[in-house]
Design brief:
Blueprint (H helix, E strand, L loop, with lengths): L1 H29 L1 E6 L7 H16 L4 E6 L7 H10 L4 E4 L1 H4 L18 H8 L2 H14 L1 E5 L2 E9 L14 E4 L3 H8 L4 E4 L5 H7 L4 E5 H6 L8 E3 L5 E3 L1 E5 H5 L3 H34 L3 E3 L4 H32 L2
Parallel strand pairs: 1-2, 1-3, 6-7, 6-8, 9-12
Antiparallel strand pairs: 3-11, 4-11, 5-8, 5-9, 5-10
């Protein structure tokens, strides 16, 4: 009797172990790791939002999905990341509409100089019918699902050696710009020598005199320590910067519905927090720069706007009715 009883105990224990192992194996089989790429250095609000997103995804999927964050262009730079998310070689990326204009010219409308009046105007467009239409366009034409539209702030100009009071002061400066057609054209229109360059190379290029100037939102300049290699700052506010969290649409469609919804929920929270912090920190970052730099608080923005007006004509000549339709939507959002 004792032998049979012990045998039953052993068999029961083995059975329980098999069930436990099968459950663990099934759980491990369901775990998935995604890659999130961005081109900005750690510490920037984009990086903070990326880790917030990763944390929320893990929480909302009960650990079934892990998101690894790769900052500073470790996987891809700005343009390469936008291409990679379309191809599915990265799962999530922060990029902007101007970069997508490399493939669909009409999508570069967001980067047009002096298109958006202020933060409220930007948010009215992206949080309204314009944002909905844009998300549908990206999904249908580029295979990108928009997880959130981000506002990284208005751009300013930092120079090594000279103050910028008006557009004429920009003449002959070698200025770093992103690899975005509208940006290149905008600075050609004020007689500079725009130089597309990866963000990670800008500090050294300014330090060694390869370039004379850089333009970016104030937070980007602070995050890149550009105040160490430039001496003058001008609050031109020439372009409003969008930085958006994108996903590969096919990847999202292939997920279980509850996991896709969890990712969308996590992204909405992370991007909303990012937008709030961008607005809250805008003056703080400007003040950090002005502690060591000579600042022009109110340059002649009308002169910049007039000088950059031909960029709109060039944009419309390339994008046609599709580009005009997006501009009209922006204007209607005021």
């Amino acid at each position: 009797m004792n032998l049979n009883f012990n045998r039953r105990k052993v068999i029961a224990a083995i059975g329980s172990a098999c069930v436990a192992f099968s459950t663990m194996a099934a759980s491990q089989a369901q775990e998935k790791t995604f890659k999130l790429s961005h081109h900005i250095a750690p510490g920037h609000l984009v990086d903070v939002a990326s880790h917030k997103f990763a944390s929320l995804v893990a929480e909302y999927t009960d650990g079934a999905i892990k998101v690894d964050v790769f900052p500073s262009g470790q996987i891809a730079g700005l343009r390469q990341g936008a291409e990679a998310v379309q191809l599915g070689t990265v799962d999530f990326v922060w990029s902007d509409m101007g970069t997508l204009g490399n493939w669909r010219p009409e999508l570069g409308f967001v980067s047009l100089p002096f298109l958006f009046a202020d933060d409220d105007h930007f948010e009215a467009f992206f949080n309204g019918d314009g944002g909905k239409a844009l998300a549908k366009e990206l999904n249908g034409k580029l295979g990108i699902e928009v997880l959130g539209f981000g506002n990284a702030g208005f751009r300013v100009v930092a120079t090594r050696d000279k103050p910028i009071h008006t557009s004429a002061d920009m003449k002959d400066l070698r200025i770093r710009v992103p690899e975005i057609p509208v940006y290149v054209q905008a600075f050609e229109s004020v007689d500079t020598n725009p130089t597309p360059m990866a963000w990670g190379e800008v500090y050294t290029a300014l330090q060694t005199g390869v370039i004379d100037a850089v333009e970016n939102p104030a937070e980007g300049l602070v995050n890149g320590s550009m105040q160490e290699v430039t001496g003058h700052l001008s609050r031109t506010f020439h372009i409003m910067t969008d930085i958006n969290l994108f996903a590969n649409a096919a990847q999202m469609e292939g997920l279980p519905a509850e996991h896709a919804d969890a990712i969308r929920r996590a992204a909405a929270e992370a991007v909303t927090e990012f937008n709030k912090k961008t607005r809250d920190n805008a003056q703080k970052n400007w003040d950090i720069l002005t502690k060591t730099m000579k600042a022009v608080e109110n340059p002649d923005r009308a002169a910049f706007e007039a000088a950059m007006a031909p960029v709109w004509d060039e944009f419309l000549s390339r994008s046609g009715d599709a580009g005009k339709a997006w501009i009209d939507l922006v204007k209607a959002a005021k």
